[in-house]
Amino acid sequence: MSSKRAMRQAQKQAYAKHRSNITNSRFELKKKSITKNKEEKKNKN
Q1: How far is CA 20 from CA 1, 16, 24, 32, in A?
Q2: In this predicted structure, what is the pLDDT of residue 39?
Q3: Domain housing 32
Q4: How far is CA 7 from the centre of its chain?
Q5: How many whole angstroms separate alpha carbon 39 and alpha carbon 45?
Q6: What is the full per-residue pLDDT of the chain (45 aa) written as tens digits?
Q7: Burial letters for 2-40: b for 16+ Cβ neighbours within 10 Å, e otherwise?
């Protein structure tokens, strides 16, 4: 019983880590593109 429970908990944690990695990487990409756009606008002016 306890081993099943531990496995289920481990799977939940792994999935949560996976989801947070996806959202963090998406956020980082947006952040990078925003800073690039700002730099390009500065260079044009």
Answers
A1: 29, 6, 6, 18
A2: 61
A3: 1-45
A4: 24
A5: 10
A6: 589 999 999 999 999 998 888 877 877 777 777 666 666 666 665
A7: eeeeeeeeeeeeeeeeeeeeeeeeeeeeeeeeeeeeeee
**Lookup: tokens for 19:** 């989801």
DSSP string, 1-45: -HHHHHHHHHHHHHHHHHHHHHHHHHHHHHHHHHHHHHHHHHHH-
Q: What is the token pair recorded at 40?
A: 């390009």
Cα–Cα dist 42/1, whole Å: 62
- Tokens 């959202």 belong to residue: 23
Q: How many domains does the chain have?
A: 1
- Both tokens of 39, joined, read 């730099």
Please give the structure tokens belonging to residue 3. 């081993």
